[in-house]
Design a protein that fits this description.
Pfam families: FUN14 (PF04930). Keywords: Membrane, Transmembrane, Transmembrane helix. Belongs to the FUN14 family. This is EF-hand domain-containing protein. By secondary structure, the chain is mainly alpha-helical. It contains five helices and no strands. The chain has one domain. It is flat and about 75 Å long.
Length: about 140
């Protein structure tokens, strides 16, 4: 019967990888992870493009018809829309520095938020998705 010390030594590789081999292995692992993530996002972009081509016009038509229906129902008084509340909520979302008006500073803050979202989420994700979407819309 083998002792625990024998099992630990049996699990050790006979030749330890050198620093150079370890560097290449880590680089290959990171490249594989990045490429597999980018490929997955590209595939999702391609599937999105196919779905847009197949179901886009009917869905867009349905959204427009629902919007028109809501406007007609609001016109006849069946759906009460409080436009002051809608406008206030919309402007509050745009007014990022909470000074009571939408200014150039607010636009800059929105641009910074978009920039942080894109690079925080991962440029490879966005790039891969847009590549797949472009391939799907352009070539299929």
């Amino acid at each position: 019967m083998a002792s625990p010390g024998d099992l630990e030594s049996a699990q050790q590789p006979l030749l330890e990888p050198s620093g150079r081999q370890d560097l290449f292995r880590r680089a290959a692992t990171k490249a594989y992870a990045w490429l597999s993530h980018t490929a997955t996002c590209t595939l999702l972009g391609l599937l999105t493009a196919i779905a847009l081509k197949l179901f886009g016009p009917p869905i867009a038509t349905a959204v427009v018809l629902v919007f028109i229906l809501i406007m007609v129902l609001a016109w006849y008084g069946f759906v009460p829309l409080n436009w002051k509340v809608v406008t206030t909520a919309f402007l509050r979302r745009l007014d990022t520095d909470a000074d009571g008006r939408v200014s150039v500073r607010d636009c800059r803050n929105c641009a910074v938020a978009v920039y942080q979202f894109v690079f925080g989420f991962g440029l490879s994700s966005v790039g891969g998705f847009l590549l797949g979407l472009w391939i799907g819309l352009r070539l299929l």
